Every structure is written in structure tokens, then in C-alpha cells.
Amino acid sequence: MYLFLAAVLSDVIPPIATRFVAGETVPEALEHVRERNDEGVGVILNLLGEHYADREGADADVAAYCDLLADLSGTNLRARLSVKPTQLGLDVSEAVFRENLARVVEHAAAHDRFVWLDMEDHTTTDATLSAYAHHAREHGNVGVCVQANLRRTRGDLERLAGLPGKVRLVKGAYDPPTEIAYQGKERVDGEYRDLLAYAFEAFEDGIAVGSHDPAMIAEAARLHDEHGTPYEIQMLMGVREDAQVELAGRRAVWQYAPYGEKWLSYFYRRVVERTENATFALRAVVGG
């Protein structure tokens, strides 16, 4: 099915990609931020790029992020950054990753901006959480993504609860081995609900609900009413954008918006990694 879908989409990727990618250049990305801000939605910008095998590529993206922070400086745009560990050099070495992350986080702190640290596949979890914990203690202007489908995540949340940074809870788009991950939509949904309930009790400074699922968004609203814990909703660019605007009238909503020239691999992965994303892509094709 996925190979068939990819083959069908290959002929129409450029027009579809504009729905899911905020342009190839910084000016295009900033214009996207302005447009979403006018609708009440904040934007989390991610420069597309990952899995660099050499330091040169990682360093170049770090420099681009620092330039982006300078471009944001002095504006009133509601914008944050999001970076991937392998984009910052984790595949080169953990030392390179931590050095580059420090450059981005410290630069962001100087510009009073927030940096999200994406979570990639399960092989990167320990390095990602360790680096996050360090910068959360040092700066506090950082957040990290955790994935509900991993069996370890409850323990990770318990260890993260006392830190000053923020946590984004997602279901998990990667496909980890069965021995370390829950399998099946119903099981993962149940775990997401349980972890959401724990987060609303344990994270007094607030959490990010990374979900397009109306049931999970409704559950977050219920938990907020019960506990009073502040929270925000995070969704991808191009997915349920009408709902993003509608929700922004009542809650803080942030849209994850990638940009840059490497949009093809991002779009392909978004489509094939989960059945739900494939459905969203097809709806985009037909205008649904």
C-alpha cells in the first residue's frame, strides 16, 4: 500500500509539499509565521535536514539556525525552533551533537527564544534526553519530545518531571522493535492517555500535547479542567489547519512547520510512516 501511495504521490509532490512545508527559504518561512500568527497560531520552525555523516553538514545547519535567530530578533513573531539530534551531528558523535546543541540553545537564550529538541528513533533516546536534561538545568528555554509507543517513556517522564524545561508528548511515528515498544493503534492510544494523565499531574509548568487526534485533544482539555495544569497543543503544518485556528481561540496552539530545500524526504516520510498521515496526504490531494 505504501509503495503504491508513494508512486502515486511522486507525480504531484511539488504542489502537495507546499501544504506541508513552509517554503525553501527563510523569508518564505518567516512569511508563513506571520500568516499563522495573524490567525492566533504560533509556529515552531524546523530547518529540514538530518542524519549527517560528517560534521560539515551539521555545522552548516547550526549556523543557519543561528542566522534564523538573528532574523527573528527584534520582531514580535511568535516563533520557536525545533532541531533534530542527527541534524546536529549525533551520527558523527555524541560530543559533536552536544557541542552543536549548546551553540543553538545558548544563541536562542541570548535572543529570548525557545528551542524544541525532536525525538528520533529509539537508538537516539538516551543521548537526546541526557542533552536535554543538561540544557534544561542550565537555561530552561528548551523542550524535548517523548514518544508514547516506547515502553520506557513512563520512566523517562518521571525523571524529567522535576526539570524546568518542557515536554511534548506524541504517540510516536517510528517503528521500534516489539520488545521495546507497544504495538497497535489501540494499545498506543491507551498508553498516550495514561501518560497524558500522568503529565498533567506531574508537570506543573505545563506540557505540550502533540496530537491531531480529536479524542486526545478533548482528553487534554478535560485533564486541564481537573488539574489546572497549563498546556499547549502542537500540530503539523498541513494537518487539520482549520482545527488549529479554531482551537487557538481557546488554547495555545503551535504549528510545527518545516522549511528548506530538503523537503522531499520529509514529505515522503510523513506520508509513509503512519496510516493517519497517508490519509491526511490523500485528503490534501483532493482538497478535503
Please explain how this structure is put together.
- The chain has 288 residues and is an alpha/beta fold.
- The protein has a single domain, classed as Alpha-Beta Barrel (TIM Barrel).
- Helices cover 51% and strands 15% of the residues.
- The chain has twelve helices and eight strands.
- The longest helix has 18 residues, at 55-72.
- The model is unreliable at 1-13 and 280-288 (pLDDT under 50).
List keywords for this structure.
single chain, 12 helices, alpha/beta, disordered N terminus, 51% helix, 288 residues, TIM Barrel
Q: Enumerate the strands of the largest sheet in spatial order, edge to edge or round the barrel.
A: 1-2-3-4-5-6-7-8
Radius of gyration, in Å, reads: 18 Å
How many helical stretches? 12
Based on the coordinates given, report the CATH architecture. Alpha-Beta Barrel
Order of helices and strands: HHHEHEHEHEHEHEHEHEHH
List how many beta strands DSSP finds: 8
Percent helix range: 40-55%
Q: Report the mean per-residue pLDDT as an integer.
A: 89
Main sheet summary:
8 strands, parallel, barrel
Q: What portion of the residues fall into strands of 2 or more residues?
A: 5-15%
- Taken from the alpha-carbon principal axes, the silhouette is globular
What do we call the CATH topology? TIM Barrel
Number of domains: 1
Structural class: alpha/beta
For the record, the CATH class is Alpha Beta
- List low-confidence stretches: 1-13, 280-288
How far the N terminus sits from the C terminus, by CA atoms, comes to: 21 Å
